[in-house]
């Protein structure tokens, strides 16, 4: 039986012109996760990432902290949906920068509504695949791990949407439950699957063992 570790990227640049860039804290979260694993002797046989910059930067931080030199397999099917496009398809008017708690909540209320409609096939956000095609990209990555890495430790670095979708596929969850998982996953959080050539099984979800302790209480972020 193998173990698959799925990691959401470190804190990115929410509210900035370019979200796809780790913040300074996001870099530290990633390095800390790699160091935590190294301290416990965990090594990986293979690494798979999406093709977004924040995935690449998160893997670079993990590799730095853990002293790893693996070359990742890049699978664009592990890329996140475009949250701005999802919101625009139900709210075409420009939104204010989410720099207050109320505007932040408003942003995520719209995102939840847009995701629900995208997953149901009632809207088609510009520049995005259908939800069925998005889900097939995640399923393809899981199939690759099961078919290629028998009894190995594999790391996937991706985003909240793909990781929640993977959990939803493994557990047979409804779209509504998958959205709720997605909106609660934390930066640099670890989700673990055990796998055989036939199936994946959920072991843990959305854990932050590397940030357990008073020294890291201000390192826990969601965006």
TrEMBL record:
Which GO terms label this protein's molecular function in UniProt? hydrolase activity
Record-given protein name: Phosphoglycerate mutase
Top-rank taxon: Bacteria
Q: Does the keyword tRNA-binding apply?
A: no
What keywords does the record list, in alphabetical order?
A: Hydrolase
What SUPFAM superfamilies does the entry give? Phosphoglycerate mutase-like
> Which species is this UniProt entry from?
Hydrogenophaga intermedia
Which CDD domains does its entry note? HP_PGM_like (cd07067)
Which segments cross the bilayer? none
Q: Which Gene3D superfamilies match?
A: Phosphoglycerate mutase-like
Pfam families the record matches: His_Phos_1
């Amino acid at each position: 039986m193998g173990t698959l570790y799925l990691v959401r990227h470190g804190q990115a640049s929410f509210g900035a012109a370019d979200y796809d860039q780790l913040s300074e804290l996001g870099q530290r979260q990633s390095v800390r996760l790699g160091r935590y694993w190294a301290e416990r002797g965990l090594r990986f046989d293979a690494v798979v990432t999406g093709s977004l910059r924040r995935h690449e930067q998160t893997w670079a931080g993990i590799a730095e902290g853990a002293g790893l030199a693996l070359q990742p397999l890049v699978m664009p099917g592990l890329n996140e949906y475009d949250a701005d496009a999802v919101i625009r398809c139900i709210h075409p008017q420009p939104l204010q920068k989410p720099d207050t708690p109320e505007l932040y909540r408003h942003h995520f209320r719209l995102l939840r509504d847009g995701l629900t409609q995208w997953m149901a096939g009632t809207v088609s956000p510009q520049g995005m695949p259908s939800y069925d095609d998005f889900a097939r990209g995640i399923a393809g990555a899981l199939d690759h791990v099961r078919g290629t890495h028998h009894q190995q430790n594999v790391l996937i670095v991706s985003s909240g949407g793909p990781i929640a979708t993977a959990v939803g596929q493994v557990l047979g969850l409804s779209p509504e439950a998958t959205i709720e998982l997605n909106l609660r996953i934390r930066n640099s959080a670890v989700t673990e699957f055990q796998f055989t050539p036939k199936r994946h099984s959920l072991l843990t979800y959305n854990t932050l063992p590397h940030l357990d302790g008073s020294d890291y209480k201000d390192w826990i972020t969601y965006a």
